[in-house]
Amino acid sequence: MASEQDYETLAGVGPGTAMGRLIREYWIPACGSAELAADAPPLRLMLLGEKLIAFRDSAGRVGIIDHRCPHRGASLFFGRNEEGGLRCVYHGWKYDVTGQCLEMPNVPPQHAFADKVKARAYRAVERAGVVYAYMGERREAPPLPAIEPLLLPEAETRITWAQRECHWLQALEGDIDTSHVAFLHDGLVKPEDYPPDAIQRYVVANRNPDIHVADTEWGTMYAGHWPAGPGNAYYRLAHFIFPFWTMIPNGPFQRNVVTRAWVPMDDTHTMFLAVAWKAGTTPIVTRKQNLPAADAAAPAQFDYLPNTTDWLGRWRLSANATNDYGIDREAQRQRSFTGIEGIHLQDQAVTESMGPIVDRGFENLAISDLMVTRTRRRLLNAARALAETGAKPPIVDDPGICLAAHSGNFVAPARLTWREAYAAELRNSANPTGALRLPALAAE
Ligand code: FES
Ligand SMILES: [Fe+2]
Fold it and tell me: 369 CA to middle of ligand 1, Å?
């Protein structure tokens, strides 16, 4: 049983909190490479409750530094990004991407001590269109995350950012909660709405699946399974990967190369990042009726408000709590369980509706929530072990371990155990990076 103290531990991401410390052990997706142009105005970046500034210097290097100028604290957001550094507009002190002060031009040269002043800076690296920050304390940062789609060249991926206004784990829990699909997304879909050969029909033929859950070296995983005709089982199989990644089963297993990060901006705002292998993306299965609820690519759901310079002003969706996510009650009566268009928006609506941080003491969890409870426990144990004994966080030093993680849906002979079925599918995966490893799973 989880306690009030557990809930508090799960909630905090700021410096010094147990969960914040755990997350800071890993590289964190900070923003898109395309959000930073050389010598362009600096970007306000809220990450793990810290107010930071990201900028790209004249040579193309990215800096992520505390927004406060170490002279007297003026915000470097107002700074001039010029010729190899960011210059504070208050007294002209200038900093490079490592935070090193380069000039203090308001001080007579014989009194200047630029070499002794450094803005707090985090290491930043770019890979495949994503800027990662390392906010931990190790002298040598660990390797970058090695989740399968993150290793693909940028041109082969589709990258999506979207802000969600709630706690990061509350948002993430939607990704590892398989039984909601047959309600929130497909609640009015009937098996006969699918073509006979569409395996997704099993999810709506039986809306209370059995779920196997296991701890893994990289986090947790589940296999939801459904009867799928004589001698067969249909699986939806997904992962949680430390510290805030998921791999979800939104397509046929062997070509479904996707991952999603739920990056805490602060305790109540989350930046969602999805990276998917373009060539593996399958068209949405056509159903007899045009069900708005079913369309993952519904155009409205990633319609953004213009970005603002606010700390929380990036990648906000135009359908949001202020307009009830565009709910159409007529559609809800006729053809859509929610009346809200698009899978992402449906998830956004329900998880934000739980409040900025859900009151977990209020919940009544059922067997269908097994993956959620297992994942909370895995996170809590890792955060406590780090805080109490300094134990290494899972996969931080060998992120390649999670190359045995892959998600998707498939039909397999019912005589196989779910682990055997998973291993067989993994062996037959498209494996576009060539990096996949066979799984080594902990006991259930
Ligand atoms: S406060 Fe930045 S230069 Fe003085
Ligand atoms: Fe969902």
Answer: 51
